[in-house]
Amino acid sequence: MKTIGIDIGGANTKIASADGEIIELHYVPLWKDTRLPEALEEIAEKHNPDRVSVVMTGELADCFEDKIAGIKFIIESVEQAFNCDIRYIDSNGHFYDDSGDLRKLAAANWAASANLIGSEIGDCIFVDMGSTTSDIIPIKAGKHTAGLSDFLRLVRSELVYAGVLRTNLAYLADSLEMAVGKCRVSSELFATTADVYLLLGDISEEIYTCETADGAGKSKTDAMRRIARVVCADLTEISPDEIYRIAEQIREKQVTLLSEAIAQVAEKNKLSTIVSAGLGEFLIRAAAKRLGFECISVAQRWGEEISKVFPAYAAARMFEADASTPQDKKER
Fold first, then answer.
1. CA–CA separation, 143 vs 123, rounded Å?
2. In the prediction, which pLDDT does 34 show?
């Protein structure tokens, strides 16, 4: 029996099998087109799973009138693509009951991850930084204690809307130190964090899966050109050294932002161990070191590729575990 988990986000759709043999990331920007049904059909045809476990965050994409419309579109796309046993995981970390509130399915990918981390590692703060956002999930006694919506998690510092690839640099810095003095930044989408981490060598061009801000290439020279525009300059006005300095400042500001949020969650929940996952494990480790917290790496425990698609992997593991549990034990 082949079980796969699918994590359908606004920008990326990730899949993983319960045995970790299948790991894929598909760039499917929901706000730009409606290719999700076709992408899922291709996945179904390629892998022909017996069971599919689904988590989602893509319902927030602004192509939908509201979250319910997004959830319904995603469910319809999944149901049309797969002819097998399908389950959806809600923000409580439970399999969704058709009689329940659909809104519980919104932004619930982290809940699947928290289930697996809670059962295998225990009390900790699970931090998963992807291309767009960073989840900061407190786990105690095997269960998460996080807010049950993105809105509530933003209020509680359990969600930081900044990631490794798609974050506008203007979100992270309102000014930068330059050779001539402090410089305010442009609020245009001239460059993203992918440019910074490509330039600094933290990610490769292969990891740079999203579109570039200007639609141009993904070389380091292209990245430098985009970063220069953040201070309304070009490569004739500021030196490569200054552009690297901008990148280093952005990295520092993102680590600071992440550290502050983790510290708030840690203090509230009396936790001091971090479990890191996602594309941004390198930034999470830096934040943990700054805070003096132990950091357990999902990449080291389960593998680097699984770390990048951890919610999908956790969803698949959750379905497989449930399918192998005798009915009488479920009822107790």
1. 8
2. 76
